[in-house]
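Work through this protein:
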Amino acid sequence: MKTFMSRAALAGLLMGVSVLASAATPAPKGAEVSIVTPKDGATIPQTVVVKFAVENIALAPAGDPTENTGHHHVLIDVDELPAAGVPIPKDANHLHFGGAQTQAEITLTPGKHTLQLELGDKNHMPFDPPIVSEKITVNVK
């Protein structure tokens, strides 16, 4: 009986966590994000400073519970936006800037690449609807 109760409690806890994890933070009305530099079509060096801008939303570090805030993620060569209801991945194609940075130095391999920004909430979750920039293409020398 004790094992059954432990399993039931664990199942309940996991169900509650999954419901909370899938609850996306509503995007503030009119919130926008954009890449200031480099410009679409630019030829850039392998290491470049990417500058970010936001409108109608404030920046805050990851974990900060202040409403209507988020932080940047740079998506490199990503064809599909990260799935709703789960944290934005953290890998070579999804760079996290959870310190509320407004720019970042990134290094790319030579060739053609796409860059796009996505704002994440305090838990690195995409907003609903997602707050993303236009995708740009750069040529790396």
